[in-house]
Design brief:
This protein has 499 residues and is mostly helical. The protein has 13 helices and no strands. α10 (355-397) packs across α11 (400-452) and α10 packs parallel to α13 (480-495). The longest helix has 70 residues, at 108-177.
């Protein structure tokens, strides 16, 4: 990306401002580490982990890993898209009702309302999905979760068409309810007609006075008419500019909604296919057989080749490929956790009588690894998707301070609310809500990452990156490795352009 001339004064001042804004985003990222880790530990207790332990023999370690990874990523993607759509709906309502105009398009009310709605929608949808998944797992086990995931994936394309239809209908209703532009245009045309009539009368009077040889005493009247004509011209231009600005804003909102709805509808298919294939092998008793790896890799290669070969490559295709490979990585980590237990037992030369305890320990370690890896993958996904929102906001609208501070304040408020309401939410709802907060954090971190590339000097860039890193490491103590993985992901997604 080409460097732009954003400057706060001297290079030292740019470095200080960049460090401060980066530190805000970094501290927010570090603040999410401990709550998420506590949520994972709570979900790894005996009672929440019981359904996984019972069904790991049914679907196999690979099937459990892919199923947990696909479910967690689906929750992350769905909640983030829900927040974006809700924010777009609020912004569209502002635009269609002329709450923003050509002279002050980016009003504080518009951005505060849209941003708050988006953050609340992401967190609420994450909590709702977390509660639903927890209920499904407790009552129907992994097979119920597999069925729910498959059904949700199949229903998303038809729901995509229905949503697009409802969005267009709602947009048309908003425009029908708001006809201020037509009223103002009619008023301007009526005043212009009245002025033309007055000018015609004055011209006739002027001609009669000249024929009579009288001196003109109507200079002030002509000056007044000219001022009124200039005022009408100015209002007409403002009206046209405001209409054009409204049209451009609405087109931009429609583009964002269309991209994210397509992303929600189709990006989950590749990882769901992998989960269904691996779970199917597990149901037939081949969950841990070596040739399952060959089959999974073949599926990954075929799906990735089909998507990457597309001449019209889209954002959901790239995210679908990444989610599919991440799901496979979660499955491999799940299987590896069980293999580590066997290796340790062999090194310790534990007797054959401990075979049952070794098997139980293998299942437990595999389930814990599947759960923790899936949630961490979902956190990376949420952070990246949030960065794809915060990065373009800074690059195209140049409102880095508003985006960073606004997202930070909203995220901290939501985080505090989740910690207070955690007994009501339950473990699944709390985990889903925390993933929603991570998405809002991604907006803040993505904005800071995009800001680092807009300074006019390298001290500003380095100061922003240093602030991000120092803030995240200092607040998120003990999670240096996690933060080291998350920051590059945030930078990559913040610099990308999904539209």
């Amino acid at each position: 990306m080409a460097r732009t001339t954003l400057g706060a004064g001297s290079p030292l001042m740019e470095a200080m401002v960049g460090f401060a804004l980066g530190a805000i985003a970094g501290c927010l990222l570090g603040a999410t580490e401990d709550p998420v880790e506590k949520a994972v530990l709570a979900m790894s207790a005996a009672a929440p982990l019981k359904p996984l332990l019972e069904d790991i023999s049914t679907v196999g370690a690979l099937g459990l890993g892919t199923l947990m990874g696909a479910t967690a990523l689906t929750v992350a993607m769905t909640s983030m898209v829900a927040g974006v759509i809700l924010a777009a709906a609020v912004a569209s309502l502002f635009v269609s009702t002329r709450s923003c105009n050509s002279s002050n398009t980016e009003t504080i009310g518009l951005w505060m309302s849209a941003g708050t709605a988006g953050a609340f929608g992401t967190t609420l949808s994450g909590a709702t999905l977390g509660v639903v998944i927890e209920w499904i797992v407790k009552n129907f086990g992994m097979m119920g979760l597999l069925g729910a995931l498959s059904m949700f994936t199949v229903l998303k394309p038809p729901l995509n068409l229905l949503f697009n239809l409802l969005w267009k209908r709602g947009e048309a209703c908003c425009y029908m309810a708001s006809n201020d532009w037509a009223k103002e245009r009619e008023e301007i045309e009526m005043r212009e007609a009245e002025q033309r009539q007055r000018v015609a009368v004055r011209i006739e009077q002027k001609i009669l006075l000249l024929e009579e040889g009288s001196s003109s005493k109507e200079e002030s009247a002509w000056i007044t008419e000219r001022r009124q004509r200039q005022e009408l011209d100015r209002r007409r231009r403002q009206n046209q500019e405001a209409q054009l600005e409204q049209k451009n804003l609405q087109q931009g909102i429609d583009t964002v909604v269309a991209k994210h709805v397509d992303f929600l509808a189709f990006s989950g298919m590749p990882m769901t296919v992998v989960a269904v294939v691996t779970s199917g092998f597990g149901l037939f008793g081949y969950g841990n057989h070596p040739f399952v790896f060959v089959a999974i890799l073949l599926v990954l290669a075929l799906v990735a080749y089909g998507l990457l070969k597309s001449s019209n490559f889209k954002f959901w295709m790239s995210m679908g490929c990444m989610a599919m490979f991440v799901t496979f990585i979660v499955a491999v980590l799940t299987l590896h956790a069980g293999q580590v237990v066997i290796t340790s037992a062999m090194k310790m030369r534990r007797p054959a009588q401990d075979r049952e305890s070794i098997s139980a320990e293998m299942k437990h370690q595999s389930c814990v690894e599947a759960l923790s890896s899936a949630i961490f993958a979902a956190k990376l996904c949420q952070l990246g998707l949030g960065a794809t929102v915060g990065g373009p906001l800074v690059r195209y609208l140049a409102r880095e301070v508003r985006v960073i501070l606004g997202a930070a304040l909203v995220a901290m408020a939501l985080l505090g609310g989740i910690l207070v309401l955690s007994p009501v939410l339950g473990e699944g709802g709390k985990a889903g809500a925390l993933l929603g907060v991570v998405g809002v954090t991604g907006v803040c971190v993505g904005a800071a990452a995009a800001l680092s590339g807009r300074w006019s000097s390298w001290p500003g860039t380095l100061g922003t990156v240093a602030g991000l890193t120092v803030g995240a490491v200092q607040v998120g103590r003990g999670h240096v490795l996690n933060i080291g993985l998350q920051l590059p992901v945030a930078f990559i997604f913040a610099m990308s352009d999904p539209f």
